[in-house]
């Protein structure tokens, strides 16, 4: 297969079941080279299963998958070196210091980034001589990211990267991700933080029950840009609100009626979280109105333990 330059990931009809219960149920996805793409969805929606198939860590039951022009199921070591992975939880190497670990992993990649620069970039300079087991949860995640970006990956997977970060650490981490994206790295992000997705992602895909139910830019997802605005103000001492698709006209009318400064005026639009929750609710309602055989099966069949990971 020749490698397309504008498409980093192409997925068609992806399916994966555990003990007959679908986790990914006919998923299509295109991720463009150089974009930051966020996968959102409730617990158990199929995000990790999808991402692990893309990473080559899990075998699919059906569908076509191309990642950087190769099928992850059969791609070789050269392909793997072009992929950076930061898993949801990491561990191990507890007795090794940050600089030893980063220096050691740098040896795996021809033309690796300078370990000192990577340690500085993830904000671990002050902890470089600290053993991994003495790092805080957030610092450990930064170390994971350091290991993930050492090899200049063309494609970086970040699975819930800022869980446990304090607000300042999250902002710093976002800046790091933005700088990687500016440098041309394609990034696949799974997160439960809507503000993180909105801040970082060029496009978002929402997965429920193993399918993409919405896919767009953060400001257009689920018709968000078409949503009515909510105008709030106080009149005769009473708080009032109105929904309108023409907030400017309403504000002008209020201003003409109540004076130049309309008391307690606010104009708001649905947040990404509002839209996301609406999409999830809508998908759940549709699923319960039309129960599929797979939904019925899931109540009676236990799931398999995790498959062995191919080397
Ligand atoms: N190894 C496994 N064996 C059996 N069932 C599994 C396995 N991995 C995932 N599942 C099931 O597949 C479904 C999708 O799980 P997955 O981990 O892909 O969801 P997710 O969207 O990543 O969830 P979360 O947000 O909680 O991480 C769930 O119902 C889960 O229980």
TrEMBL record:
Give residue spans, biased composition: Low complexity: 286-299
One GO biological process term is: response to antibiotic
- Source organism's superkingdom? Bacteria
Membrane topology per the entry is:
Peripheral membrane protein
Q: Which InterPro entries match?
A: AAA+_ATPase (IPR003593), ABC_transporter-like_ATP-bd (IPR003439), ABC_transporter-like_CS (IPR017871), ABC_transporter_ATP-binding (IPR050763), P-loop_NTPase (IPR027417)
- Asked if the keyword RNA-binding belongs to this entry, the reply reads no
Single Gene Ontology MF annotation? ATP binding
Query: What name has this protein been given in UniProt?
Result: ABC transporter ATP-binding protein
